[in-house]
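Shipment paperwork, digital attachment
Item: protein structure file
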Amino acid sequence: MKISAVVLTKNEEKNIERCLKSLEFVDEIVVIDDYSTDKTLEIIQKLEGKSQKLKSKVKIFERKLNNDFASQRNFGLEKTANNWVLFVDADEIATNELKKEILGLVPTESGDTNAYYIKRRDFFWGKELKYGETKKVRNQGIVRLVKKSSGKWMGTVHEIFHTANRIGSLDGYLNHYPHPTLTEFINDVNNYSSIRAEELFNQNVKTNILQIIFYPLTKFIYNYFILLGFLDRPAGFAYSFMMSFHSFLVRAKLYQLWQ
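Attachment content:
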């Protein structure tokens, strides 16, 4: 089967080359760029010139994100030419095992499976995280390979692919390299929490001081102790703490929006 890949970008000069090189096995790569101000597009164009496998495969569309990741993904889905679409973030790569598994799906193309969960390994502070916040996506995966017209992405942030059809599972991994520095992690948490707070506000969700205090605390205890985040050592503590801080910011910002 022919496969398209969709990659969303915004100032990804540190990641984009690694990501695109891992997608040389697909038939088309659709890049949706949120008007990057760094060298992201320049790097993509240089790669196209250097790599025979990437030549003519890459198509670039510039489109404002407008704090809506689902809309950006759905736009990318519309721009693809093939029946199957793989979604890969710019700070992710497709592993060799995943590539072989996807290319081996030809016999099931006409079946009733119209989307697949793909497992993801997160690498943070030079270490693979196996527990805590990342445990679910590492073991169960997230929907990233979809059949065109079988559903749509929903949710402005932490978006989910919704389909009425059967969802299968793959064994190969995406490797994820988020937040290379603490400064970038803090900036991302601040940005994503604002988008999430606005999403909840638009859904008429309210919060209170008890939620602002205790939800982040409960989340930290759950991720760090119940889901064994402490086994990931300092990286596990930092990740659990920052994701709890994200929960605090979401609820604090939501509270402010209602004032």
